[in-house]
Amino acid sequence: MLDVALMGSAFLMGMAGSVHCVSMCAAPCAAVTGGRGTASAAFHAGRLASYSLAGAVAASSIGLLWQWEQAASWLRPLWLGLHLAVLALGLWLLWRGEQPLWMQRRWERAPSGAAAGSATGRSTLAGLAWVAWPCGLLQSALLVAALATGPVTGALVMAAFALGSSPGLWAGPWLLRRLAQARATKPAEASVIQWWGRAPGLAAGPALASAASTGLSIPAPTGGSPPQTGPEMGPHLGPDPDLATSPDTGAAGLRWATRLSGLLLSAAALWALGHGLWVQIRAYCG
Q1: Number of Cβ atoms within 10 Å of the Cβ of 146
Q2: Is 269's pLDDT higher than 80?
Q3: Does one domain contain both 190 and 68?
Q4: Which domain of life is it from (predicted)?
């Protein structure tokens, strides 16, 4: 009965987190599957398999805690070296605002290697690797799976979570495609939208822009001046010059985002390195 309750809880967690999955995973899912049905099915099959395997490992890990405790003496240097490496990487990112050269070269080679196989194969591999995604909801589900009575039940718990969260991952790429189609308006309609939305006293501008974004045909307005042409309001659809982002601005934003990632990595590594130290100091001081 407890295992059934755990599976039901994991399934409901996945269903409740579907909105979170849409916001976090829609873009990478769309990039992996390309909106193809076969690739999407392969991706979700790989994701189901990896989640189930992770659930089995989580359920079995409770019995391995004692063995890990016995091996803590020789694991501690590895733990220390790992966090020192993470700290060094974080400080580099914070200082330079870019990845190290060896990481850039590795990422540059990744697309060519990934493109060698079929779309279905790439989607399956991505689904298998999805269990490593830094998702708090996923980690919470693994904690639930760790309460299972055995590896088989743990696998079923995570399979239930994968099925419950699948609607969000199916709907995310579809929603992105719909939004992309909604923004693809015709050039003739765009000139009308620009004139109608900017003309003084016409409160219907936003409504017409919304209607045109769905691909509807917009008739020309019956009154007022015709659409203007010029640097401020051209007859073609294009980005607003006032809202355009220069390449320099985008590069600066990327550097600051990289520095922020380095700051977070450094903070996490320092916390992990100092956690055991502060525990010993507190125990010594009483």
Answers
A1: 17
A2: yes
A3: no
A4: Bacteria
Q: Range of 172's domain? A: 2-76+118-183
Q: Are residues 156 and 174 in the same domain?
A: yes
pLDDT of residue 109: 63
Could you tell me if 237 and 187 are in contact, meaning their C-beta atoms sit under 8 angstroms apart? yes
* Same domain assignment for residues 154 and 217: no
193, 177: one domain: no
Single-letter amino acid, residue 271: W
In a domain, 15, yes or no: yes
Backbone dihedral angles phi then psi of residue 20, each to the nearest 5 degrees: -60, -40
Mean pLDDT for the stretch of residues 114-129: 77
Of the candidates 172, 155, 134, 132, the residue with the CA atom closest to the CA atom of residue 32: 172
> Looking at the structure, do residues 198 and 162 belong to the same domain, yes or no?
no
User: Are 32 and 169 contained in the same domain?
Assistant: yes
| Residue 276: per-residue pLDDT | 64
Structure tokens at 207: 């409504």
* 216 belongs to a structural domain: yes
**Separation CA 254–CA 258 (nearest Å):** 6
Numbers of helices and strands, H then E, in the chain = 11, 0
The DSSP-derived string for 55-104 is HHHHHHHHHHHHHHHHTHHHHHHHHHHHHHHHHHHHHHHHHHSS--HHHH
Helices (H), 184-231: 187-198, 205-213
At residue 217 the predicted structure's pLDDT band, cuts being 50, 70 and 90, is very low
Q: What predicted TM-score, i.e. pTM, was given to this entire model?
A: 0.53
**Pick from 195, 216, 231: which residue ends a domain?**
231
As a whole-number percent, the residues of the chain with pLDDT over 90 amount to 12
**AA letter at 254:** L
* Predicted local distance difference test score (pLDDT) of residue 19: 80
Looking at the structure, tell me whether residues 193 and 142 fall in a common domain. Answer: no
pLDDT digits (tens, 9 = 90+) for 220-242: 444 544 544 444 444 444 444 54
